[in-house]
Amino acid sequence: MSTAIIVNSICKAFGPQHVLRDISFEVLKGEKIGLVGQNGTGKSTLLNIIYGLEKPDMGELKIPKEVIMGYMTQESKLDDDLTLLEAVSAPTGQLGSLAKRITFLEKKMESGLDAEAMESVSRDYAKALEDFASSGGYGHPSRAEGVLDKLGLEKRTFNTKVGNLSGGERTKARLARIVMEAEDADLLILDEPTNHLDIETTEWLEDYLASYQGASIMVSHDRYLLDKLVSKIVEIEDTRSKAYTGNYTAYLEKKAVEMEMLSKRYSKQQKEIKRQQEMIEFMYSVYTYKSIHKTQQKKLDRMDKMGKPVNHTRELGIDFGSAAKSGKDTLDAFDVTKKFGQVPIIGKCDFRIEKGEKVGLIGPNGCGKTTLVRMIMDEEKPSSGTIKVSKGTAIGYYSQEQDGLVRGNTVIQEMQKHKKDASEEWVRTFLGRFFFSGESVFKKVFQLSGGERARLAIAKLLMSQQNFLILDEPTNYLDIYAKASMEQALREYPGTVLVISHDRAMLDAVVDQIFEIRDGALKTYSGNYSDYIRARGKARLSSGGDTYEVLKKYTDWATGKKYAQGQVLKVSGAELEGHQWAIDNGFLKKRGGESGRRKKS
Fold first, then answer.
1. Which of 235, 326, 427, 525 is paired with 65 by a 20 to 30 Å CA distance?
2. Beta strand 329-340 pairing with 69-72
3. How many CA atoms, within 13 angstroms, populate the side-chain half-sphere of residue 481?
């Protein structure tokens, strides 16, 4: 298999701080590589160097001329002033370079050249147009339309400016841009491609990347994605790289074996050093051997001594501790609905969360997960129905926006305001469990990285005892190793947990029940995320859903969804409004003989 790229002894420093030192690995054509390491180890810097956005201090990149690269960064944004179609179909890679050259030559021809210069530039312009056409440049908009259509974006949005799109539409637009980048590239570089995607969209991207024929290098904290896609892991640790064959799980297994072997070698060497030191001390104390103890000491000094192995798959010092007693049924919801004005968000549903249960709340972005949580916390009132939290339940809430943090406070001030009787020494020791040490405890909140803010918010949550934790995307911004630590702490926590998360690995490791909100209806599934995947489509619909049969085929023009004659579907209270036209006109009939027509006052 031929090579797509060779990274050879790359080094990079920012001032006195060495970020990368002797980074080397090879990417074969069609190979998919996962780049892992703690936050701040230089993964994004390395991707920038590979793509040519930054220059290394030392080392070289060997990239064949014919290899075209595409790059999707964490900060990649679409221009708000462009239409959706313009933003997604803008040429990238080699086509992008040709498009820029065509624009440059057009401006040059308009600048008033003499006849000889105009003839030369015109030839270059004609050649650039020919190359652009032969490379498929003029087919880009139609290709973009196909991608947008596959992602479920309606044609009416194609000419809408990006700045006027909804949050979900913008997410899909960004996803479409990744696909367009991939189709133009032989090597696709992805920096956290699943950030802010819901589970459904993440799975779509995952399937697309699995079928992608080109090579890819991806930085991701999504362990499910790394397990499914990559065949090699490149780890950056202590500024250096090491490659491991296999997916992320295989890497962890090999890393564990490696750490065990290093620890044994270190322990054995320490015993040998101790034995030789004791022997040297004995020689020094006995007159007969005084002449040779210095020789033995020099021999010991020349020994190649190992440093103590450090497992950089570090763990946060998370311990959610004991939980105060609550009632057997922590929470009960009866016939709950929610509308904003006339817009239904959640149809009639009921559910129960019992003491000690760990529930994962999932669903597409914008489906009402946060609204449901706000109702549970009594920050929002249901439109109908009741939510009852049992006596003695103390709720602790983690917001993915960390909106409880005061931007102008230092880290230590944030902690002290919640535990005013604690000494500075105690608070600093406590913060040390979350990797805040030395002067970092005096950093202002607005100076913190996303990961640091997440760790601070988690630390605050632990300052007081609660028996019901509601966590909104708690693993966002945590590195791949800290996520594993969070999972372990939640598994061992004796209280009740409700967690909104798109992190499938965490949902697999922690929860024993899944609540899914989709199209206004709430479905419940027993077990973890893998159990949910196996049972999807077979779970019971939460109360409030009625069964309807399609009598005549029709298209819902609001959503573009088509319904076939004889099709049976569940319609929740929240969905009823959207189906009322079909019911009123005899296309859809409620099973059991009732028409489903709303009563008119």
1. 235
2. unpaired
3. 18
Alpha-carbon gap, residue 271 to 316, rounded angstroms = 31
Structure tokens at 349: 């549903």
pLDDT at residue number 246: 92
- Ordered alpha helix ranges (H), 184-247: 199-211, 223-229
The answer to whether 396 touches 373, Cβ cutoff 8 Å, is: no
User: What is the predicted pLDDT for the residue at 542?
Assistant: 44
CB atoms within 10 A of CB 539: 14
Please name the residues in contact with 35: beta carbons below 8 A apart, sequence gap of 6 or more. 43, 46, 47, 217, 218, 219, 233, 234, 236
The answer to whether the beta carbons of residues 409 and 398 sit under 8 Å apart is no
- Per-residue model confidence as pLDDT tens digits over 542-597: 434 566 778 887 776 555 566 777 666 666 555 566 677 788 888 888 865 444 44
Which residue type is seen at 16?
Answer: P
The helix (H) or strand (E) run that includes residue 153 is none
Residue 554 and residue 563: Cα distance in Å, rounded? 5
The model's pTM is: 0.67
Token pair listed for 311: 């497992």
DSSP 1-14: --EEEEEEEEEEEE
Residue 343 has which token pair? 């817009």
Sorted by sequence, the CB contacts under 8 Å of residue 424 that are 6+ apart come out as 412, 416
Q: What is the 3-state secondary structure (H, E, C) of 267-297?
A: HHHHHHHHHHHHHHHHHHHCHHHHHHHHHHH
CA distance 104 to 126: 13
Phi–psi pair at 570, nearest 5 degrees = -95, 135
Q: Which residue has the tokens 């605050």?
A: 460
Tokens of 572: 């929740």
Question: CB of 57 within 8 A of CB of 22?
Answer: no
Tokens encoding 539:
């779970």
CA–CA gap between residue 542 and residue 385 (Å, rounded)? 14
Kindly state the tokens that stand for 223: 């362990």
Q: How many CB atoms lie within 10 A of CB 121?
A: 17
On whether the CB atoms of residues 67 and 2 are closer than 8 A, the answer is no
For 249, the enclosing helix (H) or strand (E) is helix 248-285
* Coil, strand or helix at 448: coil
Show the low-confidence residues of the chain (pLDDT under 50). 538-544, 593-601
In the structure encoding, which two tokens stand for residue 12, read together?
């990079």
Q: What is the distance between the alpha carbons of residues 66 and 253, in angstroms, rounded to a whole number?
A: 37
Instruction: Give one DSSP letter per residue of 132-145, joined into a string.
Output: HHHTTGGGHHHHHH
